[in-house]
Amino acid sequence: MPDFIKGLSKTLDNSRGILKSSVKRLSQDLVLNPSSEKYKIQKLINVTQSNSDISKLLSKINLNNNAQDITIPVYLGGNLLDEIIVNTQRRQIIKSGGR
Questions:
Q1: What three-state secondary structure class fits 83?
Q2: Rounded to whole angstroms, how far apart are CA atoms 44 and 21?
Q3: In angstroms, rounded to a whole number, what is the distance separating the alpha carbons of residues 42 and 78?
């Protein structure tokens, strides 16, 4: 067994340059270099669409004080996460930041 270890060690020492270049090449394959275009945060809203959405929301908020429900969509990055249903009597509390 000691002869095998000595032979392996000698072979590795003689092939040091080849091993270095192989390890360097393999390690570069393992590195992820994200391109800015691929991982760029997409534009969250379309201005014309958001204006119409804001108008719709404001028209619902400015309803008479009859006890109607308002549905408030919650978006993150253009994806609908949830919808919150609020009674119009509580809208003033939410508008002012209260709970």
A1: strand
A2: 45
A3: 9
The parts of the chain modelled with pLDDT lower than 70 are 1, 30-51, 61-67, 88-99
Length of the chain: 99
pLDDT reported for residue 90: 63
CA geometry: angle at 92 spanning 71 and 79, to 5°? 30
Show the DSSP H helices in the chain as ranges: 2-14, 16-30, 47-61, 91-95
Read off the tokens for 66: 């009859």
Q: Which of 81, 83, 31 minimizes the C-alpha distance to 57? A: 83
pTM for this entry: 0.27
**Integer Cα distance of 75 and 46 in angstroms:** 13
